[in-house]
Amino acid sequence: MSDNIDTPSTQEQPPSSAQEAETNEKAPAAPPSLIFLADRIREKFPEAVIAAKEWRGDLAVTVTREALHAICRFLRDDPEMDFDYIVHVSSVDWPDEPERFEVVYEVYSIRKRHRIRIKTRVPEHDCIVDSMTDIWRGAEFMEREVFDMMGIRFRNHPDLRRILMPDDYTEGYPLRKDFPLQGKGWRDTFEFLNDPAN
Amino acid sequence: MAHLEDQRSTVYHVDPSHPETDTLPTLRTEELLLNMGPQHPSTHGVLKVILELEGERIVKSTPVMGFLHRGVEKLAEHGTYHQFIPHTDRLDYVCAMYNNFAYCRAVEKLMGITVPDRAEYLRTIVAEVQRIIGHLFWLGTQALDIGAMTVFFYTFRDREILLDWFDELCGARLTTSWYRIGGVERDFTPELEQKIRKFLDYFPPKIDEYVVFLERNRIWLARTKGVAVISAEDALSFGLSGPTLRGSGVDYDLRKYESYGAYPRCEFSVPVGKNGDTYDRYWIRIEEMRESIKIIRQCMDQMEPGPIMADVPSVTLPPKERVFTNLESMIQQFKLFSQGFDAPVGEIYCGTEAHKGELGFYIVSTGGGRPYRLKIRAPSFIHMGAFDHMARGYMIADAITIFGTYDIVMGECDR
User: Is the pLDDT of residue A25 over 60?
Assistant: First the structure.
C-alpha cells in the first residue's frame, strides 16, 4: 500500500505506442479523475485516511477501521458525495501481513455518477468491523457472505449467520488462503445410495 | 402496503355481534412456519425460503441459500485468467454469453487492453441476443409459474431459434465460452449474418403476440400489478439493479452510465417504470427486447470487416488456424493456457449490465498468471437480500411472483 497518489500511468500498458495513439483517438474523453473525492474525505477525516490510489479509473481509499462507519455515513449523506447505491462488499486475505484481512466496500452515486472503493484492514485476532447495514440495507447479505467466506465479523449486524455454507459447517472459512482448494474432508463424509463401499 | 396491514388485522376476527359468539370455542391462532423449497418448481433451482405465516399472509421470510454453492471464487484463484472463462458460463447458466462478456471486460480493464472495433460490434450483438434470450426465458417461466401457461410455448419457440445460432457460432447452446480476453473466439459466418437479419424482421411482431397473451389475461394482471412493490429509495439502498431497479423509476443502466462495447455508437433508450411492481418490470423487459432489436440492427449496419482479436501477443490468444500451422503460435497458445499471462499489480472493479442487473467482477492481482482474489457481484444474490422486505404482507402465492420478479438463477446466486 503506497502512500502516494498515483494517476493512471502508462508504463504498465503492454501495447506498442502506435496502438496507444490509436486507442486515445478512438476513446471518448478519458473519464475525469476522481481523486477529489479522496481529498474531500481527507479534509473531513484527516486522521482516518491511510492511502488513496487511483488506478485504471478506479479510486480506492484505505481508511482506519475505527472511522469506517463515520466515513461511510458521510459518503451517503454529504450532498457532494451522495453515494446512495452499494455495489459490493468483499474481502481479501493477506496472510503474510500483520493486519491480515482487508474489507472492501464499493459504492456508487447514481446522481453524480462516480464510484469509490473504501477499504480497511483488520488483524486476525480481532477481525471485526462495524456493519454498514444501517447505511445501505443491501449490506446485510453482502456482509453475511464476507463473514461466511472469510470469517470477518460485523458489529451491529442484525443477522450474522452463514449464508452460502451450511449453518453447521465447522471447517472454517473457505476463502481464506490457508483453506485448501480440495476442502478439509467434510464433503467426503456423505453417504451415497449406490456407493459400493456401503 | 398500508392497505395490506389493515387487511391483516381483520383476518382472524370473530364477529362479536354474532348471537352465538359466547358459545363459540375460542379460536387458537398462531404463526405457521412453512418451508418453501428447495425442491419447489417455482424456485428455479434450489432456493429455500422459510416463511412465517399469519393465515396466508407472510409476516417474515428468511431465504436459505447455498445449495448450489460450488466455490467458484476459490476456483478462480487456482486457475489462469483464460481458464476461468468456462466457469463464468456456469454462473448464470441461462445467459452464459453475458457472464463471459462481463468477465472478459474486467480482465481487459485489468490488463489495459483495447478491443478492436469489429470485435466490439460482435460482442454487443451477441450480448443483446443473449439479453433477448434471457428475457424470453424470464417471460415464459414467470407466466408459467403464476398460471399463464400459453406464452411459455411461444417464448421458448423463439428462444430455440436464438440458441441454435449460438450452436452454429460456437458449438454450444448454453455453456458457450465464446468471448475471449481481448476479443471473441470466431467471427460470424455470412449465413449466420443473414439469419440474424431475417430474425430482426421476424421478431418484433412476435413480441406483440406475447403481449396479447398476457395483457388480456385478468388473472395474470391481478397477480402482477401491485405485487412485489419496492420504492426507488429502498431499491437503491438494497443495491438492486437491472429491470428490478428500473421498475421503481431509477434509470440506472450501465450501458448508458458507463457505456462500453459498441453501445456508445448505438441509439437506444432505457425504459423506466413508475410503480415499482412486477407488472412494470415485465413491461421494462418487453421494451428492452424491442430496444435490443434496435441495437442489433444498428450494429449489423455499422459493422465493418476487421480483426476480431486485439493484437497483444503477451495476453491474447493467437488465431486457431495459426496455432495448427505455425510453431510460435502454438507455443504462445500453450504458454497462455498453462502459465497464463503476467498481470500488473493492482485491483479493479468492472460492472456490466447483464439482463438481470449489474454483474460485476472485482479482481485483485498481485502479478503473475492467476487472480489473487476474484469477487463476483451477482445480481441474483443481491436481489435476494431484498426478498424479506418485498414479501412482507403478501400472500404465499405471491412469494412465487417475487422470485420471478428478480429473474433469479441459483447458479449465479450461490456461485
Answer: no
Q: Do B29 and B145 reside in the same domain of the chain?
A: no
Is residue B113 located within the same domain as residue B60? no
Mean pLDDT rounded to a whole number for chain B: 85
Residue-wise pLDDT for B182-201, tens only, equals 888 888 888 888 988 888 98
CB-based contact A14:B111 (threshold 8 Å)? yes
Say whether B362 and A104 touch across the interface (CB within 8 A): yes
Measuring CA to CA, how many Å separate B38 from each of A193, B34, B210, B385, B404? 20, 12, 30, 17, 15
Residue B193 parent element (H or E): helix B190-215
Q: What is the pTM of this model?
A: 0.84
Residues 6 or more apart whose Cβ sits within 8 Å of residue B158 = B136, B203, B206
Q: Hey, are the CB atoms on A164 and B65 less than 8 Å from each other?
A: yes
Query: What does the pLDDT read at residue B141?
Result: 87
pLDDT of A57 higher than 60? yes
Amino acid occupying residue B398: D
A114 touches B at CB < 8 Å: no
User: In this structure, what CATH number is given to the domain that contains residue B301?
Assistant: 1.10.645.10
pLDDT tens digits, one per residue of B333-376: 888 888 888 888 989 999 898 888 899 999 999 988 889 999 99
Residue among B113, B252, B381 minimizing CB distance to A110:
B252
Split at pLDDT 50, 70, 90, the class of B144 is confident
In a 3-state reduction of DSSP, which class is residue B349?
strand
Measured CA to CA, the distance from residue B391 to residue B406 in angstroms comes to 12
Domain containing B25 equals 2-64
Q: Tell me, what CATH number does A69's domain have?
A: 3.30.460.80
Residue A152: domain span? 29-175
The count of structural domains within chain A is 1
